[in-house]
Amino acid sequence: MQQKWWEINPKTLADTPFLALYSDRISQNIKQLIAAVNGDVSKLRPHVKTHKLGEILELFKVYGINKVKCATVSEAELCAMHGIKNILLAYQPVGQVKQNRWLTLIKKYPEILFSTIVDNLEVTNELSKLGQSKNEIFSIYLDINTGMNRTGVEFKSNWDDLLFQIHELPNIQHLGLHIYDGHLHGTENERTHFASEAFSLIKEKLHTVEQKLNTKMKIVAGGSGTFPFYATAENVECSPGTFVFWDINYQINLPEQNFLAALLVVGTVVSKPTENTLCIDIGYKAVASENSLDKRLVILNDTNLVPVSQSEEHLVVENKGNQQYRLGDIIYAIPYHVCPTCALHDTVYVVNSQQAIQEQWTVLARKRKITI
């Protein structure tokens, strides 16, 4: 019987549960990403929150990707440690502690262009004063809310007035706009329609602002859902993150994007409590569990293994098929949501083209603090 792509040479298996990364498929996903922007890597600013891995950053550089987006100071520090030249913290630095951490990171790596987002004058004023006291200029993007209602200035509001006020603040360099529209779902046509509606209004107002200020501003926009739209838009840097590993959620809901599952949770059958149930060591400490039980993972070995309960270290599945399992059998599962799944593990195991584990990587930026 031909070996399936996910099956790992048993002589190289690690103790379960663990995360397996498939290096060939990761490389293929990066190539697919670059192809989507017609080879123009300057349009790419991938989000690192999915993988949090320095080795992936090194792989980005091999393909000419030298701009990234991140959500935590720890992720930004990891990027700086690996020599990424342009790092956007897409999380407004509120409060003295976070602002001082951000300043410390900027001072430590003066050769790197760091930027962050803001959505109000209060935080921007604080950064301005901190910059004046420490002889530092903070680069910022104005965060625009197109309907997700999580952060940002409402896109139909007079956000240009706020932008003009920010532009006058000392020690603040305003680079452009940040847009994240993760609230958009549905078909590709539906996502494109709603993204383009908001984007047209934003671009129109931004054009007027640029004329008044006699400057050209950048736009960092989108995530995985609207990546195909922004990939073809002018003057936009795209910020998908999940593409590097992909997951079941996006396989189902973003079928037009031809990325491959490249990260699996590997477990073991540890008990057979009844005739038709198996217990696997993939509890919710090993795979993201914010969704209902039917939306946490899909088992590749056998679609007839259906989850019926889960606890911290156990996953009970009902065997609705005829295939029999023994204690110690290995189970391979694609997570429904890969980003928080990766953040649950200290390390990942890298599977090579011969389907053997060749090395182990540390998920360093899952830590809230590396050194700063």
Automatic annotation (TrEMBL):
<protein>
    <recommendedName>
        <fullName>D-serine dehydratase-like domain-containing protein</fullName>
    </recommendedName>
</protein>
<dbReference type="Pfam" id="PF14031">
    <property type="entry name" value="D-ser_dehydrat"/>
</dbReference>
<dbReference type="Pfam" id="PF01168">
    <property type="entry name" value="Ala_racemase_N"/>
</dbReference>
<feature type="domain" description="D-serine dehydratase-like">
    <location>
        <begin position="262"/>
        <end position="352"/>
    </location>
</feature>
<comment type="similarity">
    <text>Belongs to the DSD1 family.</text>
</comment>
<keyword id="KW-0456">Lyase</keyword>
<dbReference type="InterPro" id="IPR026956">
    <property type="entry name" value="D-ser_dehydrat-like_dom"/>
</dbReference>
<dbReference type="InterPro" id="IPR051466">
    <property type="entry name" value="D-amino_acid_metab_enzyme"/>
</dbReference>
<dbReference type="InterPro" id="IPR001608">
    <property type="entry name" value="Ala_racemase_N"/>
</dbReference>
<dbReference type="GO" id="GO:0008721">
    <property type="term" value="F:D-serine ammonia-lyase activity"/>
</dbReference>
<dbReference type="GO" id="GO:0036088">
    <property type="term" value="P:D-serine catabolic process"/>
</dbReference>
<dbReference type="InterPro" id="IPR029066">
    <property type="entry name" value="PLP-binding_barrel"/>
</dbReference>
<dbReference type="InterPro" id="IPR042208">
    <property type="entry name" value="D-ser_dehydrat-like_sf"/>
</dbReference>
